Amino acid sequence: xxxxxxxxxxxxxxxxxxxxxxxxxxxxxxxxxxxxxxxxxxxxxxxxxxxxxxxxxxxxxxxxxxxxxxxxxxxxxxxxxxxxxxxxxxxxxxxxxxxxxxxxxxxxxxxxxxxxxxxxxxxxxxxxxxxxxxxxxxxxxxxxxxxxxxxxxxxxxxxxxxxxxxxxxxxxxxxxxxxxxxxxxxxxxxxxxxxxxxxxxxxxxxxxxxxxxxxxxxxxxxxxxxxxxxxxxxxxxxxxxxxxxxxxxxxxxxxxxxxxxxxxxxxxxxxxx
Length: 273
What we know:
By secondary structure, this protein is an alpha/beta fold. The chain has two domains: 5-210, 2-enoyl-CoA Hydratase, Chain A, domain 1, CATH 3.90.226.10; 216-264. It has a six-stranded mixed beta sheet with strand order 1-2-3-4-6-9. The protein is built from eleven helices and nine strands. The protein has helices spanning 29-44, 66-73, 104-107, 124-129, 157-165, 167-176, 182-187, 200-214, 217-230, 235-249, 253-264, and strands at residues 5-10, 13-18, 50-55, 112-116, 119-121, 133-137, 141-143, 180-181, 193-195. It is globular.
């Protein structure tokens, strides 16, 4: 079914790998459909607690495929129908902005971790910013490139990037289109961790396994929604919302299990969702 990605589940982690290594995993319309479909499969699979998104070969994603950009610059349409891959993952109660081509990752009910194994350019940056966590190889690099192609801040990156790195860093990256290495990306908060290249996936999987072993999937689902909803809300509204959800959590089986596991000094046995 998939041509431009690989999809694998090893309980409790699903891995989605962008798989056009000869073109540094340059993004195609079909790749977008495939990623969305695979994410929907992972979200619906009770065996999956967390999702890792990475790239094959020496790069994460070089941005839009140049054939696509050339066609667009000459006024051609590059829409590619993929009806068999139609999928609508994510929490439908989140506002429509959280269901865009990349931003839908924020609406998924399970944590998504980007393992950036090499260059991440152009539209790949809003893709990575829409993931919940970002781990980077020490060989990774990041650039927006939009201004250098006569383009603008695309795919909600003008909303995403300042919230991750602050306005000053965001404008620097967007206006200049300059490349930053993994170390600088870490200093400005663009990535959560920088990891030796050969250890990247091992560390990402270890983190996902730790989530599966220690954190309630139900709690993570609600917490993720709370964080993204709060970005467009007020402190008072979020206080009231958190109190309501806290009271609801007192009646959940996972709360009883979490307390029992702590008192009995054993690993918790939370329900998969």
